[in-house]
Please model this.
Amino acid sequence: MTATPTETLESVRAAPLLQRALKPVVFVLACGPAAWLVYGAFTNAIGPNPIEYIIRYCGDWALRFLLIALAVTPLRLITGWQAVGRVRRMLGLFAFFYVCLHILAYVGLDQFFNWPAIWADIVKRVYITVGMAAFLTLVPLAATSTNGMVKRLGARRWRRLHRFVYAAAVAGIIHFLMMLKTGYVEPAIYGAILAVLLGVRAVKKWP
Ligand code: HEM
Model:
């Protein structure tokens, strides 16, 4: 059955609408975990150890957003849905936002901005060192996420630099694994997802 001219016109109008709605919808959804945390904090629903809860919750979401951002290109390559590429940078910045909250909670709520103690922790506890390495890898990526920086660096150099996001994700998962004494299922799942995402990119053409 062929589409009538009216139906064709409607589908042409609907496509840009979907594309225009994508960014605000993803933005609101990505704010969800932070809003949920604030709600939980105000309703005393974040357990008996709220500081640990906040650090872990933000760490979890940082890693999830890193993986979600990394899933955009494979999704585009597999489905051919080009518009999804528009939210990749936003998702990466949300990963950085949750990492910053994670670190801020650790530095401010857990360590009370006691810089010598924080430094001692970074040096002594290897999982914190690895977390710090992951964070420092993400900083230049967040700093060069604007259109102006893409222009200044040139698309090729920019893309090459932004491949370090994989290293940050690997370090984030190792950081998670190292802090655990038992129950490695969750980081193993994140690791498997990252391996699949890397595999898809290796098999499909690099954009
Ligand atoms: C890309 C960077 C990072 C990512 C993706 C990340 C992610 C995570 C994840 C997933 C957890 C475990 C959460 C859970 O138990 O469910 C965690 C724990 C933790 N992270 Fe990070 N992290 C990063 C960087 C850092 C940095 C730079 C620091 C400190 C300077 C840090 C401090 C901690 C601490 C202290 C815990 C354990 C909290 C506890 O024992 O209760 N993280 N992180």
